[in-house]
Amino acid sequence: MPLELRNLSLETGSRRLVDRVDLKVQDRGITVILGPNGAGKSLLLRLMHGLIEPTEGVILWGNAPMDDKIRRRQAMVFQKPVLLRRTAAANIAYALGLRGRSRSERTTRALQALELAGLQHHAFTPARVLSGGEQQRLCLARALSLDPEVLFLDEPTASLDPASTLAIERVLIDATHRGIKVIVVTHDVGQARRLAQDIIFLHHGRLIEHQPALRFFERPLSDAARGFISGGLVL
Amino acid sequence: MLDLSQAFHAALWQIATLDPQLLEIIGLSLKVTLTAVALASLIGFAVGGILAVYRFPGRGAVAAILNALMGLPPVVAGLIVYLLLSNAGPLGVLQLLYTPVAMIIAQVILVTPIIAALTRQTCEDLLEEYRDQLRSLGASSAEIVTTLLWDGRYRLITAVLAGFGRAIAEVGAVMIVGGNIDHVTRTMTTTIALETSKGNIALALALGMILLAIALSVNVALMGVRRLASRFAYA
To answer: Which residues are bridge partners to A9 per DSSP?
Structure first.
Protein backbone atom coordinates (compact mmCIF):
# COMPACT_ATOMS: atom_id res chain seq x y z
CA MET A 1 0.00 0.00 0.00
CA PRO A 2 2.21 2.87 -1.22
CA LEU A 3 1.56 6.29 0.28
CA GLU A 4 1.23 9.55 -1.58
CA LEU A 5 0.82 12.99 -0.03
CA ARG A 6 -0.31 15.78 -2.33
CA ASN A 7 0.11 19.40 -1.27
CA LEU A 8 -0.58 18.45 2.35
CA SER A 9 -0.91 21.32 4.81
CA LEU A 10 -2.06 21.74 8.38
CA GLU A 11 -2.81 25.16 9.80
CA THR A 12 -3.91 26.37 13.22
CA GLY A 13 -4.91 30.01 13.28
CA SER A 14 -2.34 31.84 11.18
CA ARG A 15 0.39 29.21 11.74
CA ARG A 16 1.17 26.64 9.08
CA LEU A 17 2.46 23.61 10.99
CA VAL A 18 2.77 21.36 7.94
CA ASP A 19 3.45 23.26 4.78
CA ARG A 20 2.49 21.93 1.33
CA VAL A 21 4.17 18.55 1.60
CA ASP A 22 4.33 16.43 -1.57
CA LEU A 23 5.88 12.99 -1.37
CA LYS A 24 5.56 9.32 -2.26
CA VAL A 25 6.58 6.50 0.05
CA GLN A 26 7.10 2.91 -1.06
CA ASP A 27 5.27 0.05 0.65
CA ARG A 28 8.38 -1.80 1.83
CA GLY A 29 11.14 -1.20 4.39
CA ILE A 30 11.56 1.46 7.04
CA THR A 31 10.99 5.12 6.28
CA VAL A 32 12.30 7.53 8.90
CA ILE A 33 10.85 11.00 9.36
CA LEU A 34 13.74 13.06 10.68
CA GLY A 35 14.11 16.64 11.77
CA PRO A 36 14.72 18.93 14.74
CA ASN A 37 12.12 19.51 17.47
CA GLY A 38 9.11 21.42 16.18
CA ALA A 39 9.72 20.40 12.56
CA GLY A 40 6.22 18.91 12.27
CA LYS A 41 7.32 15.24 12.25
CA SER A 42 4.69 13.93 14.67
CA LEU A 43 1.95 15.96 13.00
CA LEU A 44 2.91 14.55 9.59
CA LEU A 45 2.76 11.01 11.03
CA ARG A 46 -0.69 11.64 12.55
CA LEU A 47 -1.88 13.09 9.25
CA MET A 48 -0.64 9.98 7.42
CA HIS A 49 -2.54 7.74 9.88
CA GLY A 50 -5.68 9.87 9.64
CA LEU A 51 -5.74 10.92 13.28
CA ILE A 52 -5.95 14.55 12.26
CA GLU A 53 -7.50 16.09 9.16
CA PRO A 54 -5.33 18.24 6.89
CA THR A 55 -6.54 21.75 6.17
CA GLU A 56 -5.37 21.32 2.57
CA GLY A 57 -4.22 18.51 0.32
CA VAL A 58 -4.92 14.78 0.13
CA ILE A 59 -3.47 11.57 1.55
CA LEU A 60 -3.65 8.58 -0.77
CA TRP A 61 -2.97 5.01 0.25
CA GLY A 62 -2.64 2.92 -2.88
CA ASN A 63 -4.53 5.63 -4.79
CA ALA A 64 -7.46 5.53 -2.31
CA PRO A 65 -8.10 8.47 0.02
CA MET A 66 -7.48 7.88 3.71
CA ASP A 67 -10.52 6.58 5.59
CA ASP A 68 -11.48 4.45 8.63
CA LYS A 69 -11.25 1.26 6.61
CA ILE A 70 -7.68 1.96 5.58
CA ARG A 71 -6.77 3.02 9.12
CA ARG A 72 -7.91 -0.40 10.35
CA ARG A 73 -5.17 -1.95 8.19
CA GLN A 74 -2.59 0.12 10.01
CA ALA A 75 -1.35 0.46 13.60
CA MET A 76 0.45 3.12 15.59
CA VAL A 77 2.75 3.26 18.59
CA PHE A 78 2.93 6.59 20.38
CA GLN A 79 5.87 8.28 22.06
CA LYS A 80 4.29 7.92 25.50
CA PRO A 81 2.92 4.39 25.87
CA VAL A 82 -0.89 4.45 26.00
CA LEU A 83 -2.06 1.41 27.92
CA LEU A 84 -5.47 0.55 29.26
CA ARG A 85 -5.96 -0.09 32.97
CA ARG A 86 -5.87 -3.84 32.50
CA THR A 87 -3.32 -6.63 32.40
CA ALA A 88 -0.73 -6.81 29.63
CA ALA A 89 -2.56 -9.71 27.94
CA ALA A 90 -5.92 -7.94 28.25
CA ASN A 91 -4.48 -4.87 26.50
CA ILE A 92 -3.61 -6.94 23.44
CA ALA A 93 -6.84 -8.94 23.59
CA TYR A 94 -8.81 -5.68 23.69
CA ALA A 95 -7.19 -4.43 20.48
CA LEU A 96 -7.84 -7.78 18.78
CA GLY A 97 -11.47 -7.62 19.91
CA LEU A 98 -11.88 -4.24 18.21
CA ARG A 99 -10.66 -5.86 15.00
CA GLY A 100 -13.33 -8.53 15.26
CA ARG A 101 -11.25 -11.50 16.44
CA SER A 102 -13.03 -14.26 18.37
CA ARG A 103 -12.55 -14.54 22.13
CA SER A 104 -10.43 -17.71 21.94
CA GLU A 105 -8.27 -16.31 19.14
CA ARG A 106 -7.69 -13.15 21.15
CA THR A 107 -6.23 -15.06 24.10
CA THR A 108 -3.99 -17.25 21.94
CA ARG A 109 -2.71 -14.36 19.85
CA ALA A 110 -2.21 -12.10 22.86
CA LEU A 111 0.01 -14.70 24.52
CA GLN A 112 1.92 -15.24 21.26
CA ALA A 113 2.48 -11.48 20.87
CA LEU A 114 3.71 -11.20 24.45
CA GLU A 115 6.15 -14.03 23.86
CA LEU A 116 7.54 -12.33 20.76
CA ALA A 117 8.04 -9.17 22.81
CA GLY A 118 9.69 -11.14 25.63
CA LEU A 119 6.88 -10.23 28.02
CA GLN A 120 5.21 -13.63 28.47
CA HIS A 121 6.02 -13.65 32.20
CA HIS A 122 4.11 -10.36 32.53
CA ALA A 123 0.95 -11.58 30.77
CA PHE A 124 -1.25 -11.10 33.83
CA THR A 125 0.57 -8.12 35.31
CA PRO A 126 -1.33 -4.80 35.26
CA ALA A 127 0.14 -3.09 32.20
CA ARG A 128 0.76 0.21 33.92
CA VAL A 129 3.10 -1.21 36.56
CA LEU A 130 5.55 -2.37 33.88
CA SER A 131 8.75 -0.35 33.34
CA GLY A 132 8.86 2.29 30.59
CA GLY A 133 10.73 -0.02 28.22
CA GLU A 134 8.36 -2.91 28.89
CA GLN A 135 5.34 -0.69 28.37
CA GLN A 136 6.65 0.45 25.01
CA ARG A 137 7.40 -3.15 23.99
CA LEU A 138 3.87 -4.06 25.02
CA CYS A 139 2.50 -1.25 22.84
CA LEU A 140 4.59 -2.55 19.96
CA ALA A 141 3.43 -6.13 20.59
CA ARG A 142 -0.19 -4.92 20.62
CA ALA A 143 0.28 -3.06 17.34
CA LEU A 144 1.97 -6.02 15.64
CA SER A 145 -0.64 -8.50 16.89
CA LEU A 146 -3.10 -6.71 14.60
CA ASP A 147 -1.08 -7.79 11.53
CA PRO A 148 -0.93 -4.25 10.15
CA GLU A 149 0.22 -3.50 6.63
CA VAL A 150 1.71 -0.23 7.87
CA LEU A 151 3.13 0.45 11.33
CA PHE A 152 3.61 4.04 12.49
CA LEU A 153 5.87 4.88 15.42
CA ASP A 154 6.23 8.30 16.98
CA GLU A 155 9.61 8.57 18.73
CA PRO A 156 9.13 5.08 20.20
CA THR A 157 12.47 5.01 22.03
CA ALA A 158 12.71 8.67 23.06
CA SER A 159 12.91 8.00 26.79
CA LEU A 160 14.26 4.46 26.80
CA ASP A 161 17.60 2.98 27.83
CA PRO A 162 19.91 1.50 25.14
CA ALA A 163 18.88 -2.12 25.86
CA SER A 164 15.17 -1.34 25.44
CA THR A 165 15.94 0.74 22.33
CA LEU A 166 17.85 -2.16 20.80
CA ALA A 167 15.02 -4.59 21.59
CA ILE A 168 12.51 -2.34 19.87
CA GLU A 169 14.72 -1.72 16.83
CA ARG A 170 15.17 -5.49 16.40
CA VAL A 171 11.40 -5.99 16.47
CA LEU A 172 10.99 -3.27 13.83
CA ILE A 173 13.57 -4.80 11.50
CA ASP A 174 11.92 -8.20 11.99
CA ALA A 175 8.55 -6.65 11.15
CA THR A 176 9.84 -5.39 7.80
CA HIS A 177 11.00 -8.95 7.00
CA ARG A 178 7.38 -9.99 7.42
CA GLY A 179 6.34 -7.41 4.83
CA ILE A 180 5.14 -4.70 7.20
CA LYS A 181 5.86 -1.15 6.10
CA VAL A 182 7.33 0.84 9.01
CA ILE A 183 7.23 4.63 9.22
CA VAL A 184 9.02 5.99 12.25
CA VAL A 185 9.53 9.50 13.57
CA THR A 186 12.77 10.26 15.36
CA HIS A 187 15.14 13.11 16.01
CA ASP A 188 17.93 10.63 16.79
CA VAL A 189 20.35 10.63 13.85
CA GLY A 190 21.98 7.42 15.08
CA GLN A 191 18.68 5.60 15.09
CA ALA A 192 17.89 6.92 11.60
CA ARG A 193 21.25 5.58 10.37
CA ARG A 194 20.57 2.18 11.95
CA LEU A 195 17.03 1.75 10.66
CA ALA A 196 16.20 3.82 7.62
CA GLN A 197 15.93 2.76 4.01
CA ASP A 198 14.74 6.26 3.13
CA ILE A 199 14.64 9.54 5.02
CA ILE A 200 12.03 12.27 5.01
CA PHE A 201 13.71 15.37 6.43
CA LEU A 202 11.40 18.10 7.70
CA HIS A 203 12.18 21.60 8.93
CA HIS A 204 9.64 24.25 9.98
CA GLY A 205 6.84 22.04 8.63
CA ARG A 206 8.35 21.86 5.15
CA LEU A 207 9.67 18.82 3.35
CA ILE A 208 13.32 19.65 2.81
CA GLU A 209 14.54 16.31 1.48
CA HIS A 210 13.26 12.82 0.76
CA GLN A 211 16.12 10.54 -0.21
CA PRO A 212 17.43 6.99 0.20
CA ALA A 213 19.14 6.89 3.60
CA LEU A 214 22.67 6.24 2.31
CA ARG A 215 22.54 9.18 -0.06
CA PHE A 216 20.95 11.42 2.58
CA PHE A 217 23.74 10.80 5.07
CA GLU A 218 26.54 10.98 2.46
CA ARG A 219 25.34 13.87 0.35
CA PRO A 220 22.58 15.87 2.04
CA LEU A 221 21.14 18.42 -0.34
CA SER A 222 20.29 21.15 2.13
CA ASP A 223 22.24 23.16 4.71
CA ALA A 224 19.58 22.32 7.30
CA ALA A 225 20.02 18.56 6.79
CA ARG A 226 23.80 18.90 6.71
CA GLY A 227 23.76 20.84 9.97
CA PHE A 228 21.34 18.41 11.60
CA ILE A 229 23.37 15.33 10.65
CA SER A 230 26.60 16.89 11.93
CA GLY A 231 24.94 17.63 15.27
CA GLY A 232 24.78 21.38 14.81
CA LEU A 233 21.96 23.60 16.00
CA VAL A 234 19.42 23.93 13.20
CA LEU A 235 17.48 27.17 13.58
CA MET B 1 -35.40 18.40 81.35
CA LEU B 2 -34.19 15.54 79.22
CA ASP B 3 -31.38 13.43 80.59
CA LEU B 4 -28.93 13.12 77.72
CA SER B 5 -26.89 10.31 79.24
CA GLN B 6 -30.08 8.33 79.85
CA ALA B 7 -31.12 8.85 76.23
CA PHE B 8 -27.69 7.82 75.06
CA HIS B 9 -27.80 4.61 77.06
CA ALA B 10 -31.31 3.86 75.80
CA ALA B 11 -30.09 4.37 72.24
CA LEU B 12 -27.18 2.01 72.73
CA TRP B 13 -29.55 -0.54 74.29
CA GLN B 14 -31.84 -0.36 71.26
CA ILE B 15 -28.89 -0.98 68.96
CA ALA B 16 -27.44 -3.76 71.11
CA THR B 17 -30.76 -5.60 71.41
CA LEU B 18 -31.50 -5.16 67.68
CA ASP B 19 -34.77 -3.41 68.40
CA PRO B 20 -37.29 -4.59 65.74
CA GLN B 21 -38.59 -1.05 65.12
CA LEU B 22 -35.04 0.16 64.59
CA LEU B 23 -34.22 -2.71 62.23
CA GLU B 24 -37.38 -2.13 60.20
CA ILE B 25 -36.51 1.53 59.69
CA ILE B 26 -32.87 0.79 58.81
CA GLY B 27 -33.98 -1.97 56.43
CA LEU B 28 -36.39 0.30 54.57
CA SER B 29 -33.83 3.12 54.37
CA LEU B 30 -31.20 0.83 52.89
CA LYS B 31 -33.69 -0.78 50.50
CA VAL B 32 -34.84 2.60 49.16
CA THR B 33 -31.36 4.11 48.93
CA LEU B 34 -29.60 1.08 47.44
CA THR B 35 -32.33 0.69 44.80
CA ALA B 36 -32.20 4.41 43.99
CA VAL B 37 -28.39 4.41 43.75
CA ALA B 38 -28.39 1.31 41.54
CA LEU B 39 -30.88 2.93 39.13
CA ALA B 40 -29.08 6.29 39.25
CA SER B 41 -25.78 4.52 38.50
CA LEU B 42 -27.20 2.84 35.40
CA ILE B 43 -28.56 6.15 34.12
CA GLY B 44 -25.59 8.23 35.32
CA PHE B 45 -22.93 5.99 33.78
CA ALA B 46 -24.68 6.03 30.41
CA VAL B 47 -25.35 9.79 30.43
CA GLY B 48 -21.86 10.67 31.69
CA GLY B 49 -20.13 8.38 29.18
CA ILE B 50 -22.19 9.66 26.26
CA LEU B 51 -21.60 13.31 27.22
CA ALA B 52 -17.85 12.69 27.39
CA VAL B 53 -17.53 10.98 24.02
CA TYR B 54 -20.30 12.08 21.64
CA ARG B 55 -20.51 15.51 20.09
CA PHE B 56 -24.06 16.75 19.44
CA PRO B 57 -25.93 20.07 19.44
CA GLY B 58 -26.93 21.09 22.97
CA ARG B 59 -24.23 18.96 24.62
CA GLY B 60 -22.90 21.98 26.52
CA ALA B 61 -26.38 22.88 27.74
CA VAL B 62 -27.01 19.31 28.96
CA ALA B 63 -23.68 19.34 30.82
CA ALA B 64 -24.49 22.71 32.40
CA ILE B 65 -27.94 21.51 33.51
CA LEU B 66 -26.38 18.37 34.95
CA ASN B 67 -23.89 20.41 36.94
CA ALA B 68 -26.65 22.70 38.18
CA LEU B 69 -28.77 19.72 39.22
CA MET B 70 -25.93 18.47 41.42
CA GLY B 71 -26.93 21.19 43.85
CA LEU B 72 -30.67 20.55 43.55
CA PRO B 73 -32.27 21.10 46.99
CA PRO B 74 -33.89 17.83 48.13
CA VAL B 75 -37.16 19.56 49.02
CA VAL B 76 -37.42 20.84 45.45
CA ALA B 77 -36.83 17.32 44.10
CA GLY B 78 -39.49 16.11 46.52
CA LEU B 79 -41.88 18.80 45.41
CA ILE B 80 -41.40 17.91 41.73
CA VAL B 81 -42.03 14.22 42.37
CA TYR B 82 -45.00 15.10 44.60
CA LEU B 83 -46.57 17.18 41.80
CA LEU B 84 -45.98 14.39 39.29
CA LEU B 85 -47.41 11.63 41.49
CA SER B 86 -50.24 13.44 43.26
CA ASN B 87 -53.77 12.60 42.16
CA ALA B 88 -53.92 15.79 40.07
CA GLY B 89 -50.51 15.13 38.52
CA PRO B 90 -49.72 13.40 35.21
CA LEU B 91 -48.66 10.17 36.95
CA GLY B 92 -51.32 10.27 39.67
CA VAL B 93 -53.11 7.29 38.15
CA LEU B 94 -50.18 5.09 39.25
CA GLN B 95 -51.02 5.78 42.93
CA LEU B 96 -47.36 5.85 43.92
CA LEU B 97 -47.40 8.81 46.29
CA TYR B 98 -46.55 7.87 49.90
CA THR B 99 -44.96 4.60 48.85
CA PRO B 100 -41.30 3.53 48.88
CA VAL B 101 -41.37 3.72 45.06
CA ALA B 102 -42.03 7.46 45.25
CA MET B 103 -39.07 7.81 47.61
CA ILE B 104 -36.87 5.85 45.21
CA ILE B 105 -37.91 8.12 42.33
CA ALA B 106 -37.08 11.23 44.36
CA GLN B 107 -33.68 9.87 45.34
CA VAL B 108 -32.91 8.85 41.75
CA ILE B 109 -33.57 12.46 40.70
CA LEU B 110 -31.23 13.70 43.41
CA VAL B 111 -28.41 11.21 42.86
CA THR B 112 -28.33 10.77 39.06
CA PRO B 113 -26.81 14.22 38.35
CA ILE B 114 -24.01 13.56 40.84
CA ILE B 115 -23.11 10.20 39.35
CA ALA B 116 -23.50 11.44 35.76
CA ALA B 117 -21.34 14.53 36.32
CA LEU B 118 -18.58 12.55 38.08
CA THR B 119 -18.76 9.88 35.35
CA ARG B 120 -18.43 12.51 32.64
CA GLN B 121 -15.38 13.99 34.35
CA THR B 122 -13.78 10.57 34.76
CA CYS B 123 -14.45 9.61 31.15
CA GLU B 124 -13.19 12.95 29.81
CA ASP B 125 -9.94 12.61 31.75
CA LEU B 126 -9.39 9.11 30.39
CA LEU B 127 -10.40 10.12 26.88
CA GLU B 128 -7.76 12.82 26.89
CA GLU B 129 -5.20 10.08 27.43
CA TYR B 130 -6.73 7.39 25.21
CA ARG B 131 -8.27 9.31 22.30
CA ASP B 132 -5.59 8.86 19.63
CA GLN B 133 -4.81 5.28 20.63
CA LEU B 134 -8.47 4.22 20.54
CA ARG B 135 -9.01 5.93 17.19
CA SER B 136 -5.89 4.26 15.86
CA LEU B 137 -7.22 0.88 16.99
CA GLY B 138 -10.50 1.60 15.22
CA ALA B 139 -12.86 1.84 18.20
CA SER B 140 -16.36 3.19 17.50
CA SER B 141 -17.85 5.87 19.75
CA ALA B 142 -19.98 3.26 21.56
CA GLU B 143 -16.90 1.08 22.10
CA ILE B 144 -15.02 4.10 23.42
CA VAL B 145 -17.80 4.77 25.97
CA THR B 146 -17.74 1.19 27.29
CA THR B 147 -13.93 1.20 27.37
CA LEU B 148 -13.80 4.42 29.36
CA LEU B 149 -16.46 3.21 31.81
CA TRP B 150 -14.58 -0.03 32.41
CA ASP B 151 -11.18 1.62 32.72
CA GLY B 152 -12.60 4.26 35.04
CA ARG B 153 -14.26 1.65 37.23
CA TYR B 154 -12.38 2.48 40.42
CA ARG B 155 -13.13 6.17 40.12
CA LEU B 156 -16.75 5.37 39.27
CA ILE B 157 -17.08 3.46 42.53
CA THR B 158 -16.19 6.74 44.20
CA ALA B 159 -19.03 8.40 42.27
CA VAL B 160 -21.47 5.72 43.36
CA LEU B 161 -20.42 6.05 46.99
CA ALA B 162 -20.79 9.83 46.78
CA GLY B 163 -24.32 9.29 45.45
CA PHE B 164 -25.04 6.82 48.22
CA GLY B 165 -23.85 9.31 50.82
CA ARG B 166 -26.21 11.96 49.49
CA ALA B 167 -29.20 9.62 49.26
CA ILE B 168 -28.92 7.93 52.66
CA ALA B 169 -28.59 11.27 54.48
CA GLU B 170 -31.39 12.97 52.59
CA VAL B 171 -34.58 13.91 54.47
CA GLY B 172 -36.53 16.63 52.63
CA ALA B 173 -37.55 14.74 49.49
CA VAL B 174 -38.45 11.44 51.15
CA MET B 175 -40.45 13.29 53.80
CA ILE B 176 -42.56 15.03 51.12
CA VAL B 177 -43.18 12.06 48.81
CA GLY B 178 -43.07 9.30 51.45
CA GLY B 179 -45.12 11.02 54.11
CA ASN B 180 -43.17 9.37 56.94
CA ILE B 181 -45.87 6.71 57.43
CA ASP B 182 -45.10 4.22 60.20
CA HIS B 183 -44.19 0.74 58.86
CA VAL B 184 -44.55 1.96 55.27
CA THR B 185 -42.30 4.90 54.42
CA ARG B 186 -40.47 5.71 57.62
CA THR B 187 -36.73 5.99 57.02
CA MET B 188 -33.85 6.78 59.33
CA THR B 189 -33.71 10.47 58.51
CA THR B 190 -37.46 11.10 58.63
CA THR B 191 -37.71 9.17 61.90
CA ILE B 192 -34.93 11.26 63.44
CA ALA B 193 -36.79 14.44 62.45
CA LEU B 194 -40.11 13.14 63.80
CA GLU B 195 -38.87 11.54 67.04
CA THR B 196 -36.77 14.58 67.93
CA SER B 197 -39.81 16.83 67.60
CA LYS B 198 -41.74 14.40 69.80
CA GLY B 199 -38.98 14.37 72.40
CA ASN B 200 -38.15 10.68 71.87
CA ILE B 201 -34.46 11.32 71.75
CA ALA B 202 -33.37 7.70 72.36
CA LEU B 203 -34.64 6.36 69.02
CA ALA B 204 -33.45 9.47 67.16
CA LEU B 205 -30.02 9.13 68.74
CA ALA B 206 -29.79 5.42 67.94
CA LEU B 207 -30.63 6.09 64.30
CA GLY B 208 -28.21 9.01 64.25
CA MET B 209 -25.42 6.74 65.43
CA ILE B 210 -26.29 4.16 62.78
CA LEU B 211 -26.27 6.87 60.09
CA LEU B 212 -22.89 8.10 61.28
CA ALA B 213 -21.56 4.55 61.22
CA ILE B 214 -22.82 4.13 57.64
CA ALA B 215 -21.21 7.44 56.60
CA LEU B 216 -17.95 6.35 58.22
CA SER B 217 -18.11 2.97 56.48
CA VAL B 218 -18.65 4.66 53.13
CA ASN B 219 -15.58 6.83 53.68
CA VAL B 220 -13.46 3.87 54.77
CA ALA B 221 -14.63 2.01 51.65
CA LEU B 222 -13.67 5.04 49.53
CA MET B 223 -10.18 5.11 50.99
CA GLY B 224 -9.85 1.37 50.42
CA VAL B 225 -10.89 1.65 46.79
CA ARG B 226 -8.41 4.48 46.19
CA ARG B 227 -5.61 2.53 47.83
CA LEU B 228 -6.45 -0.57 45.82
CA ALA B 229 -6.53 1.43 42.58
CA SER B 230 -3.17 3.08 43.12
CA ARG B 231 -1.63 -0.23 44.24
CA PHE B 232 -2.44 -1.75 40.88
CA ALA B 233 -1.66 1.46 38.98
CA TYR B 234 -5.20 1.49 37.68
CA ALA B 235 -5.97 4.98 38.95
So the answer is: A56
